Amino acid sequence: MTTSRTVLVTGGNRGIGYAIAEEFVAQGHRVAVTARSGEGPEGTLTVRADVTDAESIDRAFSEIEAELGPVEVVVANAGITRDTLLLRMSEEEFTSVVDTNLTGAFRVVKRASKGMLKARFGRIVLISSVVGLYGSAGQVNYSASKAGLVGMARSLTRELGARNITANVVAPGFIETDMTDALPEAQQAEYRKNIPAGRFATPGEVARVVTWLAGEDAGYVSGAVIPVDGGLGMGH
Ligand code: NDP
User: Fold this and answer.
1) Ligand 1 pocket residue status of 50, Cβ below 6 Å
2) What CATH number should be reported for the domain whose range is 6-228?
3) Structural contact between residues 236 and 171, judged by C-beta atoms closer than 8 angstroms
4) How far does the centroid of ligand 1 lie from the alpha carbon of residue 12, in Å?
5) Domain boundaries in the chain?
6) CB-CB contact of 210 with 125 (8 Å)
7) Rounded to an integer, what distance in angstroms lies between the CA atom of residue 56 and that of residue 35?
8) Which residues lie closer than 8 Å to 9 by C-beta, 6 or more apart?
9) Which residues have a catalytic role annotated?
10) Confidence of residue 26 (pLDDT cuts 50, 70, 90)
11) Contact in structure between 161 and 124 (CB atoms under 8 Å)
């Protein structure tokens, strides 16, 4: 039987985060999501938090701890893109993406680690992207932030591994969400041609890899980068 855990998913009000939260609920866990707007799926506790603001994260954790108990599984999923070519990219466009995607994950994981160290149990899952290691023209900011998550998970593994805390990266390829809907149709078709699977994935296909990493069977998996990309990034 699966142990019921307290889970936090950042950015759980839509897209991949919503699907991850739904899957954890379906598997019988106590699930909280952070949202700046909207709500998480049915059966979740929605707390307001912005990952660029450490105080709001601290308040969100205190609320979750009071309602559901200490967070045992954290999924750093909140992320943004601000794509443009290098010469047009402002420093603000670079740092704001890093602040949300990379420093945001740091803030959330740091706060979560307090309870995990005390409990001598924790599962940390960082949502990166195939472009973190593959690279992508027009995404110098985004791919740098996503590659940074790999170093973060591996350092967390070395620092916290002996306390029964794992830290892994999930690297999705193209997933059907608002983020990819925003791409022009011609560009979407071009991407599909390069994906060995010949299609984009559903958010649920990412969610079930995340719940597996957080579960009993993955206790000896740490510092890994698990692609969910239909073969797009093979070898990276
Ligand atoms: P969406 O754009 O659909 O959703 C992004 C989520 O992140 C929203 O819940 C959003 O909240 C939240 N978020 C953004 N900024 C902040 C912030 N400062 N504080 C708190 N929450 C924030 O994205 P996806 O579901 O597509 O992507 C989820 C993750 O997966 C991201 O990290 C993304 O980089 C990654 N990914 C996505 C891929 C794809 O093909 N879709 C491919 C590879 C990786 P709000 O609604 O309030 O804006």
Assistant:
1) yes
2) 3.40.50.720
3) no
4) 9
5) 6-228
6) yes
7) 11
8) 17, 20, 21, 24, 31, 32, 33, 34, 40, 75, 77
9) 142
10) very high
11) no
